Amino acid sequence: MPLYTSQPLKIYNSLSGEKENFKPIHEGNVGMYVCGPTVYSNVHLGNVRTFMSFDVIFRYFLHLDYKVRYVRNITDVGHIVDDVDEGEDKIAKKARLEQLEPMEVVQRYTVDFHDILKAFNFLPPSIEPTATGHIIEQIEIIKKIIDTGIGYVANGSVYFDVVKYNQTNNYGVLSGRNIEDMLANTRDLDGQSDKRNPQDFALWKKAEPEHIMRWPSPWSDGFPGWHLECTAMSTKYLGNHFDIHGGGMDLKFPHHECEIAQNEACTGQSPVNYWMHANMLTLNGKKMAKSTGNNILPGEILSGDNTILSKAFSASVTRFFMLQAHYRSILDFSDDAITAAEKGYKRLMEALDALSGISAGNSSSIDFNAWKQLCYDAMNDDFNTPILIAQLFEGVRYINLLKEGKETISAEDLKTFSTAINAFVFDVLGLSDEKAADSNNDKLEGVVNMLIGMRNQARADKNFALSDQIRDQLITLGIQLKDGKEGTTFSL
């Protein structure tokens, strides 16, 4: 039987403000959409924390034997500076400032995003669609919303009439905001806007002559609104009604609120059963901001090239640090906090190394099945990674007692305990054993250097066919040789 049948899961639903029993729409299957990055700059640490939260959620669903379709998009058009409807597209602005094509900007920072997530041992999503790859779908949704009378065309742009929508629906159902209060607290339109109401949002924007990123549509040459792209991509790959939609807490309003409104206007039903939001990351007790210098990039943590930390910290240590806080809690990043996390991470890895050397006895003096269930209880309680980590350190204490001969473990329990603790550490939390990785790298370096020696000998013997064969086979494995004055080196 699949594991999920014996491990009931509760998820905090931002829509209800309560923890709810998780029941997928289709038994044994999970459809999950997470708002991805706008690729106009290097991915920042707060983004990494959000995506790490959903990486663990993805991993845990897989661990429970669910079949998961995880969709995480790339925003490569339509995200206006300051998250409003008027102004310059973030990517177009970056392209103008750096004198690049917009898609050069997109490519550069998409590669950076993937490199950073790979370094932090993220699983790739099932599908990673781009906004520019789904312009047709977005135009079709706009047509449907116009047909309902909730979308209206003004001067080549298309807007969503929030007041009209709210007559039959609840704009504010996710954020808890009241439309009357929102309208009362918004200054009157100055007569220069095409909107009927201040709270209306753009479904399609007519491009000004200088705007680089534009597509033809029935209304104008222009580009889609930021909120629309996620509605188009989530419904295309997960259907009009799916299980989970996630993102950062800052997206709850207006982005996710607008998504709900678009879906309900277009399909007549609420799109998502469980809305999940990860909380923010602060640095030394303050909001991270480039303008104040209170900022650090993920790559700067790994390299140590920063003025915030006392030294470099590995990706696994950083990951372990972040998972010590619940995804819905604010997490403060500091040198003292990550230094303490490094000590805890090393303790955990040393204990796992020691576990492999423990011998089984005839019986167990500890209830290891009860410990294992407590680990599941932690994750089943809205993916509570800090409680899981506390249970893992209880497991570390057991390992030390077993090493000292103060407790005993049967062969069956040793297998159960070892399988469970390794699964939670490596498969669910996504940590890596860096000592083992370093050892593997040393072995790889030794093998490559041996092949370089064989190639050098082949060249000396004028056996160029063998020399080229060694070089070419290494290239197919992703190992590039570089011949220089001081000999041959390699890079991965």
TrEMBL record:
Cofactor: record remark: Binds 1 zinc ion per subunit.
Domain Cysteinyl-tRNA synthetase class Ia DALR: residue ranges: 374-440
Chain sites annotated for binding ATP: K290
Motif window: 'KMSKS' region: 287-291
Enzyme's top EC category: ligase
EC number(s) from the headed UniProt entry: 6.1.1.16
Cofactor: Zn(2+)
SMART domains noted in UniProt: DALR_2
Residues that coordinate or bind Zn(2+): C35, C230, H255, E259
Regions that span the bilayer: none
SUPFAM superfamilies named in the record: Anticodon-binding domain of a subclass of class I aminoacyl-tRNA synthetases (SSF47323), Nucleotidylyl transferase (SSF52374)
InterPro entries xrefs: Cys-tRNA-ligase (IPR015803), Cys-tRNA-synt_Ia_DALR (IPR015273), Cys-tRNA/MSH_ligase (IPR024909), Rossmann-like_a/b/a_fold (IPR014729), tRNA-synt_1_cat_dom (IPR032678), tRNAsynth_Ia_anticodon-bd (IPR009080)
Signal peptide: none
Pfam families, sorted: DALR_2, tRNA-synt_1e
Catalytic activity: tRNA(Cys) + L-cysteine + ATP = L-cysteinyl-tRNA(Cys) + AMP + diphosphate
Domain of life: Bacteria
CDD domains: CysRS_core (cd00672)
Locus of motif 'HIGH' region: 37-47
Keywords: Aminoacyl-tRNA synthetase, ATP-binding, Cytoplasm, Ligase, Metal-binding, Nucleotide-binding, Protein biosynthesis, Zinc
Cellular compartments annotated: Cytoplasm
Family indicated by similarity: Belongs to the class-I aminoacyl-tRNA synthetase family.
Subunit structure: Monomer.
Protein name: Cysteine--tRNA ligase
